[in-house]
Inverse folding.
């Protein structure tokens, strides 16, 4: 790793992982890992105990909407923890679909599709404490 990469911010992300018949998690990992200028440490909902210490450390909770229907209790827990620990939520749309449940969209701090640049931009924006104004890869519905 070069010195330039050593100086860059390393984001701590808690990523949903669970009952995932469409491999949304694997596809998300491919997308975010394709971004050479973005460094992160991953915690996920299968491999890590969801302790208060993790929620005190993480920068963003990444909810993969494609996992929602098979993991609703987990999503509810993560949404509650995000409020309790003041951790922003990034909701990633189901791959190939624009539809998202309004109730989840309203609980998320940002919603994006699968454009890896948009995912990274949303994470950086949320961590910087700025409001996510508009998804960069979804047409305005107004």
């Amino acid at each position: 790793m070069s010195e330039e990469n050593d100086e860059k911010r390393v984001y701590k992300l808690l990523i949903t992982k669970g009952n995932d018949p469409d491999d949304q998690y694997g596809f998300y990992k491919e997308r975010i890992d394709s971004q050479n200028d973005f460094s992160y440490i991953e915690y996920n909902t299968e491999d890590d105990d969801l302790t208060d210490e993790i929620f005190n450390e993480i920068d963003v909770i990444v909810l993969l909407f494609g996992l929602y229907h098979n993991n609703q209790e987990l999503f509810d827990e993560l949404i509650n923890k995000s409020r309790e620990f003041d951790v922003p939520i990034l909701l990633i749309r189901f791959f190939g679909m624009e539809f998202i449940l309004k109730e989840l969209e309203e609980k998320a701090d940002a919603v994006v599709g699968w454009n890896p640049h948009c995912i990274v931009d949303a994470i950086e924006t949320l961590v910087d404490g700025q409001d996510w104004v508009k998804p960069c890869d979804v047409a305005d519905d107004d």
Observations:
- The CA atoms of residues 22 and 28 lie 11 Å apart.
- Strands lie at 10-15, 39-44, 60-64, 89-92, 110-112.
- Residues 1-6, 138-142 have pLDDT under 50 and may be disordered.
- The longest strand covers residues 10-15.
